[in-house]
Write a structure and sequence with these properties.
The structure is a single chain. β9 (275-278) and β10 form a beta hairpin. The chain has helices spanning 3-18, 25-32, 36-49, 80-95, 99-115, 118-135, 149-161, 233-237, 259-266, 293-301, 313-319; strands at 54-57, 63-66, 163-169, 178-189, 193-199, 208-211, 215-224, 251-257, 275-278, 284-290, 307-311. The protein is of the alpha+beta class. 40% of the residues lie in helices and 21% in strands.
Length: 331
Amino acid sequence: MSFEKAQQLLELATFVASRRMGVTLNDVGERLGISKRTAQRILHTLEVQFPDTESSFDENGNKRWRLQTGALRDLLTLTPDELAALDLSIETLERNSLGMEADQLRCLREKILALVPHNKIARLETDHEALLEAQGLAARPGPTARLTPEISSKISMALKGSERLKIVYHSRRNSEATVRVVEPYGVLIGMRRYLVAKSLSDPDGPLRYFVADKIQSAELTGEFFERDQNFDIDQHAQKAFGAFQNEQEFDEVVWKFKPSAAAHARDFLFHPAQILEDQPDGSLVVRFNASGHLEMCWHLYMWGDQVEVLAPLALRKMIEHHQRTDFHALP
C-alpha cells in the first residue's frame, strides 16, 4: 500500500469511528471526493485492515459501516497544524465575544492533549509555537463589539432550552433602556451580533433583531415556548448581506466591478447564492438577493470607485458621492 493510500485509509477510519450511526457509501464519497466504486474498494480495505469494522443496514436499506475507536487509539496523532487551528478557533470565538464557547473549546483542547503520549508532547509544542508565531495569532487587530460572558451564557442557555429571556435593552430609538421578554431563535454574527427573537409583546409579529451589545442584562424566566418548526437559522441568514435584515429592503442586488478590480472581486464570496457574470470588457457583475443596505454600504466603501451599483436604486443612491478615487489598495 502506498503512503498516500495509507493516509487516505487512516483518514477514512477516523471518519467512520467518529460517526456513532456509521457512514454510508455516499458519505465516504463526499468526504474523500471519490467515486462510488472507489468508495466501495476503500471500505473493503478498511474491513480487511481493521477487523473491528462492522456493517449493517439501516431502516432505509442503506448499508452503514461502523468502527470502534479503540482500534485507532495508537495510530492517531495530533499535529501542530491541528493544534494551531484549535487555538485560532478559540481566539476567534473570544474576539467575537463568545467567551463561553471559547472556554468549552479550550476544555476540549486540554482533553485532547491529555490523551497525547508524553514523549510526543515536547516536539508537538515546539512546532506548535513556531507555527503560531508564523501565523501571528497573538496579534489580530480590528474593531469588535463587546458582549459580556454572563449575557452570552444566558442567551446560549435560552436557545438550547427554548426558554423565554427577560432582557434590559437600550435601543437606538429610546433614550433609556427598557425591559423586554423575548423568545430567542438564534444569533447572527457579522460586524455586529444580533439576537434573533420574537417579542412577547407582539407574539404574532415578525422576528426582531436585537443588537447583542446593547443588551445590558439578561435573565432566564423559567417559561418555555414552542419554536416554529419551519424556522431554519441558516436559510434565514441568507436573506441578509451581513447580519441585520430588513424585509422591506429584500430584493435583487447587482454590483458591477471595473476590469481593474474584477479578478480581486472574483475571489470574494459576497453571498452564498451569488451569481458571477464575466463581461466582454473584462468587468465582473455580481448578483444575489439580500437585504441590509447599510451593511452593504459599509462594505462597498472599501472598494472606492472600483464598483458600480446597478440595483437596487435605493442602494445606488445611498453610496452616491461616497466612492473615493484615492484608495491605493482593494479590500
